[in-house]
TrEMBL record:
This is JmjC domain-containing protein. InterPro entries: Cupin_8, JmjC_dom, RmlC-like_jellyroll. It holds the Pfam family Cupin_8. Residues 121-278 form the JmjC domain.
Length: 343
């Protein structure tokens, strides 16, 4: 994969580095952090990392030894696109999504190794527990009592447009070099996001090509770069990405493996804020201005301010969903919303 103009990345601030004596110190550092940081060599003792130093094929053999006999979802991009998994000019996807067994996928990687005209191949966010036996046990980070979603990303040289995720994320580079370019959550206006409902992988992405930014078309991107941080990472390094931070991800080597651990500090039954945004776009965005202003005030009252004035005048035990949400309350509300949306 061709490198971007290095001048763009040399002008950006580097993500700070931190070190921790043990898992307890790492746990405390993650709980206190609200900005990204790198932990060098955190996972240097993983088998995946050791085999990566040997050869890509050694890693693939190891993964095959642990893989379950089931179909994997794989994205195959076009040759000559610099590994960019993105839209076509007609806003379709420039890659195909296929189902295949892992030996077939790896055979394709073997055949394309060292070929500049090979198609980029990318397996995204595979659940380590569902698709592999014993892989997590030998390649994980002690994150205390967090209930994590544990994913593995396997691919040739690729780059994924800037996007964000709702959970916190510890991303561990197992094989190959990676570059992350990160932006604070509030920079979304300057990243020129694409569609919400037509996305490469479920999250809105920046339309800016970081390898060749068009500042005439995207002038506010210069402001985003003023707030950007870059993380250049080697095998064994880990990067903490707080919830909602935007990140552009590049797998810089011919073969790359990333393992990441997602978690939320709030219960999963609270639901996804993105679903609320989608519903608000459908129900509120196109109302007359005066009605939108009313609903903005109502959202501030019930959702964003949410102080004692909302409930103090209502007898305890009769406040319904205005009381603190519980798993049972969330389940009832979800069922109610499903009934309403089906009408």
């Amino acid at each position: 994969m061709a490198e971007a103009d290095p001048g763009l990345f040399r002008t950006l601030a580097s993500v700070p580095e931190r070190s921790f004596a043990d898992a307890t110190a790492l746990d405390a550092g993650l709980r206190d952090a609200d900005r990204p940081f790198i932990v060098r060599s955190l996972v240097k003792d993983w088998p995946l990392v050791a085999l990566g130093h040997e050869s890509p094929r050694a890693v693939r053999r190891y993964l095959l030894d642990h893989a379950r006999a089931m179909n994997f979802t794989v994205s195959v991009g076009p040759p000559g696109a610099d590994g960019r998994m993105f839209y076509t000019d007609q806003m379709g996807m420039n890659f195909r999504t296929l189902q295949a067994k892992l030996p077939e996928i790896f055979a394709r990687m073997d055949a394309g190794e060292n070929r500049p005209d090979a198609n980029p191949v990318y397996l995204q966010s595979l659940d380590m527990h569902r698709f592999f036996d014993g892989l997590y046990d030998a390649n994980h980070v002690d994150l205390g009592d967090r209930k994590t979603l544990d994913g593995i990303w396997i691919g040739t040289a690729t780059r994924v447009a800037a996007h964000n995720d709702f959970p916190d994320n510890l991303a561990c580079v197992a094989v190959g070099r990676r570059r992350f370019t990160l932006f604070p959550p509030e920079q979304f206006r300057n990243l020129y996001l694409g569609p919400i409902d037509n996305t490469p992988a479920g999250r809105a992405i920046s339309m800016v090509d970081f390898h060749d930014p068009d500042f005439e078309r995207f002038p506010r991107f210069r402001e985003a770069l003023d707030h950007a941080q870059v993380a250049e990472m080697e095998p064994g390094d880990a990067l903490y990405i707080p919830s909602s931070w935007w990140h552009h991800v590049e797998g810089l080597s011919a073969f790359n493996v990333l393992v990441n651990f997602w978690w939320r500090d709030t219960p999963r039954w609270l639901g996804q804020p993105q679903n609320a945004l989608n519903l608000a776009i459908m129900a509120i965005r196109d109302l007359p201005d005066a009605e939108k202003a009313y609903w903005r005030d109502l959202f501030d009252h019930y959702v964003f301010h949410n102080d004692g004035s909302v409930i103090d005048h209502i007898p305890e035990g009769t406040r319904g969903i205005l009381d603190p949400m519980t798993a049972e309350g969330a389940s009832r509300l979800r069922a109610f919303l499903l009934r309403q949306l089906s009408q």
